[in-house]
Amino acid sequence: MNPNKALWEKGDFTKIADTMRESSAALVATLGIQPGMEVLDVGCGDGDTAIPAAKLGARVTGLDIAHNLVEAGNLRAKNEGVGDICKILEGDVTDMKEIQDASYELVISIFGAMFAPRPLDTAKELVRVTRKGGRIVMGNWIPGDPTLVAQILKISSAYTPAPPEGFLSPMLWGVEDEVIRRFETAGIPKENISFSRETFTFQAGYAPTVLVNNFKNYYGPTMNAFEAAEKTGKAGALQQELENLFNSQNKSGAENRTSIPATYLKVIVHCG
What we know:
Blueprint: H1 3-10, H2 14-17, H3 21-28, E1 38-42, H4 50-55, E2 59-64, H5 67-79, E3 86-90, E4 104-110, H6 119-128, E5 130-141, H7 148-157, H8 176-185, E6 193-204, H9 208-218, H10 220-231, H11 235-249, E7 258-270
Parallel strand pairs: 1-2, 1-4, 2-3, 4-5
Antiparallel strand pairs: 5-7, 6-7
Helix pairs in contact: 7-10, 7-11, 9-10, 9-11, 10-11
C-alpha cells in the first residue's frame, strides 16, 4: 500500500476538517469561480473546498488517496445538494491516470498535494491536467512558521524517529523558491507564479484541549507521533506540549471555544 494512503486512512480526518469548513468556503469564494466552470480539487479530503466550489455552480471533480475520505466526501456532497455536480474519486496526485490532459480551468489543492511524495511528479501532474489559460491554486503550510500547523508538525517530529534517507518534507511546498523550481521543472515560467501569505482559522465549539485529542486520535501524522512517544514513555510530554500550543494560540476569548489562526502560503500558477 502507498504509505500516504495508509497514513490518511489511519484516522478520520473529517474530525479535523469539521473545524476547517468556514475558512475553506471563504477561500473558495476568492477564486472567481463561475457557474459551469470545470474544477479539479486534488487531495480534497471529504470535500472542504470541493463542495463550496460546487455550490458556486462549478462542475467539480475531487481526488483523494484515502478511500474513507472519498466515501465521506461523496456522502457530504449528496447531503448538501451538489452530488450531481461534485464527484470525488480515489486517486494519487503523483499519477492522476483517471484525469485526461488539459481537462480543467481551475485546479485546487489546499493542504492536499503538498503531502504527496515525489513533488516533481506532483507539479507535472497538476500542470498536465490544467487547460491552457487555466490556473492552479495551492494552499501550503510554511516551515518554521510560528502559527499552529507548522508548530504541531515541529513538536511532533521531536517525538518520532528520523525519516528515511531521501525523505522530502511536505513543508518544502511552503518555500517560494522551491515551489518555483518545481513548477519550472513542469514547464511553467517563474513570472507565471505568484505568492501571498494568508490566514486559515480552525474553528470549533469546544475547548482547544478537545481539538488536541482529535488530532491525537484522528490525524494520521499526530497519531504516529503519539505511538512513537508511547514507546519511549513520552506521550504525556507530547500531550502537554500540544495542549500548551493550542491554548496559547486560541483567540476565541472563551475556554469552551476554539479559534486558532494559521498562516499558509497561497500559490497561484497561471498555465500559459
